[in-house]
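User: I'm curious whether this sequence folds into something compact or stays loose and floppy. Could you predict its structure so I can see for myself?
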Amino acid sequence: MNNQSSPIVEQVAQQYLIRHVVVEANQCPFEALNDYTLIQQVLDEIADIVNTEIMARTGYHFQPYGVTAILVVGASHISAHTWPEFGYATVDLVVCREDFSLAAVINHVKKRLGAGSVNYLEFRRGLVE
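Assistant: Here's the prediction. I'll summarize afterward.
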């Protein structure tokens, strides 16, 4: 019988500078994804959910279809890219804060874009050692 104790593993809370969330919306109506004004509004609303100030906005409505919209916000940036012909959009949220509901952001994207399904990936970037 081995009486040696197990090595103590100290769990250390890691601190990251950046929270990067990619929300993918599928089975969206073509009209919603090709509406530049709607996509900009969705980003503005996400900035409100995240409680961050909009510093600047830009974007482009591609021909014959597709939208890219970008917000520079106090917490970093939020962007959206759409492919109406595939019913697909991605929303990237890159922020340096934790104090918001990710579920609220995801549900908002799903509702406003009329998505049949939504999934997301989350990355933590800028590990502070």
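Summary: The longest strand covers residues 15-26. DSSP finds three helices and six strands in the chain.
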